[in-house]
Amino acid sequence: FLSNAIAFTRSGGIIVSLSRKDERVLFSVKDTGAGITPENATRLFLDWSKVDKSEPVSVGLGLYLAKRTTDVHGGRLWVESDGPGKGSTFFVELPIKSR
Question: Residues of 34-58 as b/e, b for ≥16 C-beta within 10 angstroms?
Answer without folding.
Answer: bbbeeebbeebbeeebbbeeeeeeb
